Amino acid sequence: MTKVPITQKEFLSILWGEDNHGVAELMTLDENGRTPGYPYSYPSELDKLIEDANRFSGKVHVFMGVCLRREKWKTGSRGTKKNTLSSMCVWADIDFKETPREEALKKIKEFPLKPSIVVKSGGGVHLYWLLKEPAVGTDLESRIEGINKVFVNILGADRQSIDLARVLRIPGTLNLKKEYDPPRLCEISLPGWNPNLRYTLDNFDDFSPEVKPIQVPSQEILVRKGPPSEDLKPFPPKDIPENIKSEIADHLSNLWKKGHRHNLALYVAGMFAHAGIKIETAKEIVKIASDAYGEKSEFRLRDVEATYKRFQEGTPIGGKGKIEDLFKDDPEAKKIWDIVKELSPKIDTDGPPADMEIITVNKPSETLQVDIGTLEVSESVRQIIRGGVPLYVEYRRQTDSPSKFIQQQEAEEMDNEEADAFVSVSLLQGGIKDEIIYSVFRNHPSGCGEKYATAGKDGDDYLRNTIIQSKKLIRAQPNWSASTICKAVARKTRKDHEDERLKILLVTKYNQEPPTYEVLISLHGKEYATRCSLDQAYYYDVFKKAFFAKHDLYLPPQRQSTWVRIYEKAKKETKEVEEQEATIGGQINAAIEDLVRSAIGEKSGISGVNHMAVKTDDGDIIFKTPVLLRYLKSQGLELKRNDVIHHLKESGWKGRSHRFGQEVIWIWAKVHQNEKEEEAGLFLQEKL
């Protein structure tokens, strides 16, 4: 009997659970790397999601969140791991470019548990093993992601596609990768459609690696005195003199830059909270800096309130140290920050907190309940469960061998206040300093757990260097906490042991207007070339999106400072583009000239301006931005509005207001005295 094609609604209803309720995510990816996520109430808005997915298909890549989310989010952002509500499956994403088709099919056939659904993605397969009951709560991260990791090792699945926030292609939409001409359809494999084939999480236990506890010496840890308290700390009461307050705000406004504003507001508020400064003063200073930047200060004030709330609840918050990390690679910003730091109130950090005490764990395998979570001791790894999320600190006694290191290949380095809190609370204040702390990370699929756990000669050298640095710091700074020791050692050793999985081999700059770059990188032994703009080449987070749009591959997490260092080491070359028409600037100029020629002899009022290029009574030629952008697109050149405006500024165009009938609008213009000059032209900007 021939099987009937499966509808998108049937597929999504099975994947998310016909009886479940939550928020479903639709995500798109355009050629510029933008990845907005759209939330839909499930199941009430399922038809709307499918309608929008089919409307987007063929224009952009279309994906859906594998898991249901708990709450809706602002359209344009993304559903997050923390917002995950439930999952009705475990899954694997296999790319035939990484795992050859024949090899992948052989592994799938040999795997004892047959997938419930097989989707042909266009360049590989998506496999789903449906569950009898939805996974929720702590099972989501500890079991779902753990099982997905098994598929990486056994089936050769993509290690970047195992986390709870993962999105995969929706069957029935097109895979628009540039190497596919024509685009390929993502579709369900009818022989692979077995939705009645269901599993429990326990069915996968036989394939999951075990970590057995071992005997370690008794250890002292720092915990809060007495039973966990529900009482909140009072808000800090102190104020700052008006003249100092004004000076701090003025200097701080010079640091308020795009990309830093959210974190800067959090950490500045944390700095003031630690110093005992009242929330009203912190909000006043942050508001001045935010207003000077020109953004809506209400968002930054919410950041301040959130930080003070966490402080009041006893939750760790960032402060001066985090701000210094933000600007350590920006000398000018660092100078300004040094001034702010000198003006700011000093924070007394001497001595342990009054409400903390040191206790001893006599049994290494016992579970200790503390107010921030559950601490467990296992082989060379300390784990704490906080809010259902496992966090880890990896450490090594001096007599241990690097080859015995537990390899957390799917781990994300944690460099935030949660990690600092974990280190300072759960690591030893005494004996732990005789052990070497390597890294702190979440159990998360971002692939940098190997960073500090190398084996062989390099591993031995690195271990020896780490021990030496640790001993020096312990002797020189006997009062430093384990957290401070960990950070200092990492800073001293990290520069010489970069993540070798990603290297920049060559950066080619094309001298055109605006300039473009081609970045050739080596990732896991393979080379990939990505053509990109200046911002995409400079900022790693932006480059990752451009790389994904080009190659449909995820890059591992990387600090911006690390990206800058490996960028500086790369070989660089410059190529000239001689023919004007071969440059972006030349094509823009040619398009303007064509529009100018078409407008000569035409006259129109404001209605004409909205639809076409026209000539004014003064002899100027004007046209709206969409007119030029549409013309460029018709010539096969799709550009960002900002790139076009940048070129016009460089070419001598000026912005000014102009009256059309009863309406005054802003335009870009070159003033021409000769009315018959064919090259005359104006560029109209809709809104400044």
Secondary-structure topology with pairs:
Blueprint: H1 8-16, E1 22-29, E2 37-42, H2 46-56, E3 61-65, E4 68-69, E5 84-95, H3 101-110, E6 117-120, E7 124-135, H4 138-155, E8 167-169, E9 174-175, E10 184-185, E11 187-188, E12 198-199, E13 219-224, H5 242-253, H6 261-274, H7 279-293, H8 297-313, H9 320-327, H10 331-343, E14 356-361, E15 368-370, E16 373-378, E17 381-386, E18 389-397, E19 412-413, H11 417-426, E20 435-442, H12 456-476, H13 482-494, E21 502-511, E22 516-523, E23 526-532, H14 534-538, H15 540-551, H16 560-569, E24 571-576, H17 584-599, H18 606-609, E25 614-615, E26 621-622, H19 625-634, H20 641-650, E27 654-660, E28 663-669, E29 682-684
Parallel strand pairs: 7-12, 21-24
Antiparallel strand pairs: 1-2, 1-3, 3-8, 4-5, 5-7, 6-7, 6-11, 9-10, 13-14, 15-16, 16-17, 17-18, 18-20, 19-20, 21-22, 22-23, 25-26, 27-28, 28-29
Helix pairs in contact: 5-7, 5-10, 6-7, 6-8, 6-9, 7-8, 9-10, 12-13
